[in-house]
């Protein structure tokens, strides 16, 4: 992330602030002002393009893939049969049936020679496969464990579980064995312990390699000092010293989060808290993670929603439910599409043939073969008039429109619109990607063109140690927090504060894969917004990005100066 952010006005600093907005302009800045964008013909031939990710984008030519950076430089010529995006900016490249590694600058770290390579962990390790054996490689392309294992289970909390034949062991990030493959079973480390089986005895292994046998038939690794234990074919709970917290009485126990446990009895599931107190009766077929600290519950082929505290906010009633993004999940029931928020409020929009996930406060909708957008109240903001459309990213969406005579499809061109539906960049491209960090890639006459947004501000990266960090955004003017009353035909009158919509639709926190973190927002004072952390906190060593869009207004209805403001942060222990 770039570091060259200059503050133009003097403002009060708070310890927990990540950015300070000078940011209200006396003149409204609209995305439709084309001088915000530059378009450069790169003279790089291609048949297809992708969206930038971590500063690079894939292109393809004649069925082979290459890589281009955000300055338009060709990093890898289109000569690879596959290119995959990795976390942390490292890229898996393929030639034929073999795979290698490149970094985000296009430097080849390892020529394609392995049968497979996994994603990199946050700590910079990946599993490699050769001749049906697995090893470990780091981000410098150095093999720290030769392919010798029958399976490697992924890096978690400092160690990888590895298996040779029927025996298990642990390897650290440097390729050093904590325990050679002498264990009869092993679980991942959690809370500084791993549940392992040594001979006939189950117990806990600490990070120094010390094993403490406990008198149970099977165990799982602890969560907040609570250990699922099995005795006489039933599961209960104990502490790390083996003291029983809840007598074994369930067929299975699995932690959903730090304070919520799924239990199974006779093929049905319910929930407990970490003391063993029943929260939800075993009346459901399954409970699976959705996203944003929400869970999907199923019963008799229908789906409902459970929150992070274990409360049912929607009983199983949907034929299908999508993952939560921006606090809402798309649902389908009896051929009707709609969406549900985290409080359980459901809005159906039967006039559309399909609704896609919300992005930046708007959801793409399809009516027949045309696309438009609705807001989080279900209002149609942009009528379905486009032949194709991407989701909104950084305040803009790529859309396809027919510039020829009505009823023809011979003059389809791509351009960009803002969240009011105004055209920002005219329909002049054969294809167009979404924006990422102010850059988009387009195709014109089988040549790549680079589009850059100059109205994007980057705040210096931050490193924190608190996984429950609450970020504050401080503005130099009071925000517009008027109340709005909506009269819905099916729900009656609803009064909401405009600031609630502003926070949800204009501020987002995403991880390095672009997934939304399950944050919540609080309007603390007329000029301060708090971003509260996800229920279980931020993941250690994961890179997160806070993005603020400019549809935030002060009481004089002035918008933020920068169209997009971004900041990266990492939690380090």
TrEMBL record:
InterPro entries, per the entry: DNA_methylase_N6_adenine_CS, WG_beta_rep
PROSITE patterns for the chain: N6_MTASE
Protein known as: SbsA Ig-like domain-containing protein
């Amino acid at each position: 992330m770039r570091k060259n952010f200059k503050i133009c006005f003097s403002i009060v600093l708070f310890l927990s602030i990540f950015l300070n907005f000078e940011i209200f302009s006396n003149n409204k800045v609209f995305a439709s002002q084309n001088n915000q964008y530059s378009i450069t013909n790169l003279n790089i031939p291609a048949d297809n393009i992708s969206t930038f990710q971590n500063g690079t984008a894939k292109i393809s030519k004649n069925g082979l893939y290459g890589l281009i950076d955000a300055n338009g430089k060709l990093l890898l010529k289109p000569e690879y049969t596959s290119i995959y995006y990795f976390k942390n900016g490292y890229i898996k490249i393929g030639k034929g049936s073999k795979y290698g590694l490149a970094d985000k600058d296009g430097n080849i770290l390892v020529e394609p020679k392995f049968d497979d390579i996994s994603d990199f962990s946050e700590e910079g390790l990946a599993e490699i496969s050769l001749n049906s054996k697995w090893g470990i490689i780091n981000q410098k392309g150095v093999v720290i464990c030769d392919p010798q294992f029958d399976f490697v289970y992924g890096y978690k909390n400092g160690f990888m579980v590895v298996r040779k034949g029927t025996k298990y062991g642990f390897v650290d990030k440097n390729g050093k064995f904590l325990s050679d493959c002498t264990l009869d079973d092993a679980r991942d480390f959690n809370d500084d312990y791993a549940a392992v089986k040594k001979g006939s005895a189950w117990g806990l292994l600490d990070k120094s390699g010390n094993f403490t046998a406990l008198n149970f038939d099977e165990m799982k690794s602890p969560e907040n000092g609570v250990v699922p234990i099995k005795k006489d074919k039933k599961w209960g709970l104990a502490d790390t010293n083996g003291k029983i917290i809840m007598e074994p009485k369930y067929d299975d126990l699995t932690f959903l989060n730090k304070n919520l446990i799924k239990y199974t009895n006779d093929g049905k599931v319910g929930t407990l808290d970490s003391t063993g107190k029943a929260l939800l009766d075993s009346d459901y077929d399954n409970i699976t993670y959705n996203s944003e600290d929400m869970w999907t519950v199923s019963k008799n082929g229908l789906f409902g929603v459970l929150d992070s505290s274990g409360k049912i906010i929607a009983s199983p009633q949907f034929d299908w439910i999508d993952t939560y993004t921006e606090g809402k999940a798309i649902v389908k029931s009896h051929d009707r599409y709609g969406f549900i928020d985290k409080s359980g409020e459901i809005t159906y929009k039967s006039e559309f043939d399909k609704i896609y996930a919300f992005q930046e406060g708007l959801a793409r909708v399809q009516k027949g073969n045309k696309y438009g957008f609705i807001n989080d109240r279900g209002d149609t903001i942009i009528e379905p008039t486009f032949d194709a459309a991407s989701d909104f990213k950084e305040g803009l969406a790529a859309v396809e429109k027919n510039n020829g005579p009505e009823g023809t499809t011979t003059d389809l061109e791509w351009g960009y619109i803002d969240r009011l539906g105004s055209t920002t960049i005219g329909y002049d491209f054969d294809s167009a990607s979404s924006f990422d960090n102010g850059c988009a890639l387009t195709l014109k006459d089988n040549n790549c063109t680079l589009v850059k947004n100059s109205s994007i501000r980057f705040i210096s990266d931050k490193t924190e140690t608190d996984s429950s960090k609450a970020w504050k955004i401080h503005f130099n003017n009071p925000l517009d927090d008027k109340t709005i009353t909506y009269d819905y035909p099916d729900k009656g009158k609803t009064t909401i504060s405009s600031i609630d919509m502003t926070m949800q639709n204009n501020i987002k926190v995403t991880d390095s894969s672009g997934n939304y973190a399950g944050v919540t927002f609080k309007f603390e004072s007329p000029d301060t917004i708090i971003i509260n952390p996800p229920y279980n906190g931020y993941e250690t060593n994961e890179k997160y990005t806070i993005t603020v869009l400019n549809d935030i207004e002060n009481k004089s209805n002035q918008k933020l100066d920068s169209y997009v403001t971004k900041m990266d942060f990492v939690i380090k222990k």
